[in-house]
Design a protein that fits this description.
transmembrane helix, mainly alpha, about 0% strand, 9 helices, membrane
Length: about 190
C-alpha cells in the first residue's frame, strides 16, 4: 500500500500543472458523482498539502458556485425545488457572510443551499462570485488541513483513525425500535 501511495505522489509531482487542473475539475464535476465537498477537500490536503490544497479547493469551490449560478438560471424548476429546501433550513433569516462561511463548514448543510441564498441576496454574478469565494475559504482551509493531517499519520495510524471514525458513525446512528401493531395493542389476559 505504501508503495502505491509513493507511486501516486510521484505521478502527481511529475504531472506539473495537470494535477491541480484535474483537482479543480474534480471539484466542478463532483456533483455528478454525488461526492461530498468534505471528501474532495480532504483529498486536496492529502495530495497537495494544506497551503496548495486550500488554494486549489477555494478555486474549485468558487468554480462550482459559478457553474451553479449558470445552471440555476437555465433550469428554473431546479431552483424551485432548492428554494423549498432552503426555506426549511434558512427560512427568511438575513444571513451575513460570516454566518454563511460557518454554514459552509457544516457538512450536513448542502453546499448549494448556501449558493442559492447567495444568488437571492446578491444583485449580479460579480457580487455572487465575490461572496462565494469568501464563503468557500473556511471549508477549503479546514477540511484540507485535516486531509493533510491524515497524510502525516503513518498508514497504521490512518487506518486506526478511519476505524475510529467508522465506530463513531455507527455509535451515533439513529436507533429505532419497531413494534408490530398486534403487539402494541395486545391485551394481556391472565
Amino acid at each position: 500500500m505504501e508503495d502505491f501511495i509513493e507511486r501516486s505522489f510521484h505521478v502527481i509531482e511529475q504531472s506539473g500543472w495537470f494535477a491541480p487542473l484535474f483537482f479543480v475539475l474534480l471539484h466542478v464535476f463532483r456533483q455528478v458523482f454525488f461526492i461530498p465537498v468534505l471528501l474532495i477537500c480532504l483529498l486536496g490536503g492529502y495530495l497537495f498539502g494544506t497551503f496548495y490544497g486550500s488554494i486549489y479547493s477555494i478555486i474549485g469551490l468558487t468554480a462550482v458556485s459559478v457553474v451553479f449560478y449558470g445552471l440555476i438560471h437555465l433550469f428554473p424548476r431546479m431552483r424551485g425545488k432548492l428554494t423549498v429546501l432552503k426555506q426549511k433550513f434558512v427560512k427568511d433569516r438575513q444571513l451575513t457572510v460570516p454566518q454563511m462561511m460557518i454554514m459552509r463548514l457544516m457538512p450536513f448543510i448542502h453546499f448549494h443551499l448556501i449558493s442559492l441564498y447567495l444568488i437571492e441576496s446578491t444583485k449580479n454574478i460579480r457580487d455572487y462570485t465575490k461572496y462565494s469565494f469568501l464563503a468557500s475559504i473556511p471549508p477549503a482551509v479546514v477540511y484540507t488541513a485535516f486531509g493533510d493531517m491524515i497524510h502525516e499519520l503513518p498508514l497504521e495510524g490512518t487506518l486506526i483513525f478511519a476505524g475510529f471514525l467508522g465506530m463513531l458513525f455507527l455509535f451515533f446512528r439513529k436507533k429505532r425500535t419497531n413494534i408490530k401493531w398486534e403487539e402494541f395493542f395486545s391485551t394481556s389476559r391472565q
